[in-house]
Write a structure and sequence with these properties.
6-stranded mixed beta sheet, about 350 residues, 12 strands, alpha/beta, 14 helices, disordered C terminus
Length: about 350
C-alpha cells in the first residue's frame, strides 16, 4: 500500500479508502490509485483482509436449484443483487443448494460469508429457523407464513392477482382460469408465491360473483403445451387465462394455437410475475404484469448490508407490485361469450 501511495502521490489512507470503499474518493483520485495498482501488480488480498477484520465482505444468495429452474426473472434477481452488493463494497456469491436447513448451516458455520439472502421462500421454511438459531444475519426475497419478525422484500402477489383479474373482467371476461407452477413434486401450499396468488385469485373472482378455476403444471414449455389441452378439455368455455408460470407460458401459447384457439381473438392470455423478455418470445407478444426482479434484488441486498453495517434501526418489510406492460395477448371477450349472451342462456 505504501508503494501504491507513493506511485499515485496520495496518502496510504486514500489507498485504503479506495480499496475498501470505506470513505468517498473522487473519481480522479480513484483512477490514479487503480492505475498505480495495475502498474505495480497490486492485488487485493481477500483472505488477509478477512483475517484482519474477521469479516469476509461476502454475502451468499441461497437459491434452491434442485427444486426451482433458472428462469429469466430469476436471473434479474441475481444480476441486480450482485451489482448492488459490489456498489456497497461486498461480493455476492450464488449458492445453489436445496431448501434443507442443514446445508444453510454448513455454509454459515465455517465463516465463509458475513450474511445470507434467501430466495424461493417456503411458508414454513426450515432455513429461517436454522439461520435464526445460528445468529447469522439474513434477509428474505419472499415471505414465510408469519414474517412479522423478519426482514424481507417481496412481490405483492395478493394485489397483483387482484389487478390481473380486474384487467380481464374490465375487458368483459367472466370465465377466467389460473395456471400456476407446480414447483416439481412439492406441495403447492408450501410455496409462498403460489399459495398467496391462488388464494388472492379465488377471493377476487368470488368478490365479483365469478367461479374461480385453477390449474397447475411443471415449469417447462412441454408442460405448458400439455396444460393447454387439459384446460380446454376441462373448461371448454374459458375465455381468459392468467399464467403465473414463466417457463410454461410459451408452450401454453403453442398448445392453444395447436387446438385452434387464436390469441387474443378466441382466448386472452395474461402473464403474471414474469419478464418482458419472456413475453416477447411469444407470438403475439404476451401482455404481462412484469416481476420487479431488478428492484427486489437491489432492495434485498441493501436490507442485508444495512444489518451488517449496523445501519438497520428497524425491520425492513416491503412489498412491490408487478407492473402491467401491454402486449397483444389480451382483448375483449368474444361476443358469443359476453354477459348479455350468458344472461339470455339463463
Amino acid at each position: 500500500m505504501q508503494d501504491v501511495a507513493r506511485h499515485a502521490n496520495v496518502s496510504i489512507a486514500t489507498v485504503s479508502f479506495t480499496i475498501n470503499n470505506t470513505k468517498p474518493v473522487s473519481a480522479r483520485t480513484r483512477e490514479k490509485v487503480e492505475a498505480a495498482m495495475r502498474e505495480l501488480g497490486f492485488r487485493r488480498n481477500a483472505v488477509g483482509r478477512a483475517l484482519a477484520s474477521k469479516r469476509t465482505r461476502i454475502i451468499a444468495l441461497l437459491f434452491p436449484a434442485l427444486q426451482h429452474s433458472m428462469s429469466g426473472t430469476v436471473i434479474q434477481f441475481f444480476t441486480s443483487a450482485a451489482a448492488t452488493a459490489r456498489e456497497l463494497g461486498y461480493n455476492l456469491v450464488l449458492w445453489p443448494i436445496s431448501n434443507e436447513a442443514g446445508q444453510a448451516t454448513e455454509l454459515t458455520a465455517n465463516g465463509l460469508v458475513d450474511g445470507v439472502l434467501l430466495m424461493e421462500v417456503e411458508l414454513d421454511d426450515p432455513r429461517v429457523q436454522e439461520l435464526q438459531e445460528s445468529g447469522t444475519p439474513f434477509a428474505l426475497i419472499g415471505r414465510t407464513r408469519a414474517p412479522e419478525e423478519l426482514t424481507y422484500v417481496d412481490i405483492n402477489f395478493e394485489e397483483t392477482l387482484v389487478a390481473a383479474v380486474q384487467h380481464l373482467t374490465a375487458l368483459g371476461h367472466r370465465k377466467i382460469a389460473l395456471l400456476d407452477d407446480a414447483i416439481g413434486s412439492r406441495s403447492l401450499a408450501a410455496f409462498g408465491p403460489v399459495s398467496r396468488s391462488r388464494d388472492s385469485f379465488e377471493a377476487e373472482m368470488r368478490r365479483q360473483d365469478l367461479v374461480p378455476t385453477a390449474f397447475t403444471c411443471e415449469a417447462n414449455p412441454a408442460a405448458g403445451k400439455a396444460a393447454a389441452a387439459e384446460i380446454l378439455a376441462a373448461y371448454p368455455g374459458v375465455t381468459a387465462l392468467i399464467v403465473q408460470n414463466e417457463q410454461a407460458a410459451p408452450g401454453l401459447a403453442s398448445g392453444l394455437r395447436r387446438a385452434g384457439r387464436r390469441i387474443p381473438q378466441d382466448l386472452s392470455v395474461l402473464s403474471v410475475a414474469s419478464s418482458a423478455e419472456m413475453a416477447a418470445m411469444v407470438d403475439p407478444e404476451l401482455t404481462v404484469l412484469t416481476s420487479p426482479g431488478h428492484e427486489l434484488g437491489r432492495m434485498g441486498v441493501a436490507a442485508l448490508i444495512d444489518q451488517l453495517e449496523g445501519r438497520a434501526t428497524s425491520l425492513r418489510q416491503e412489498l412491490v407490485m408487478c407492473r402491467l406492460e401491454g402486449g397483444g395477448s389480451t382483448g375483449p371477450v368474444p361476443a358469443q361469450e359476453g354477459p348479455a349472451q350468458e344472461e339470455a342462456v339463463q
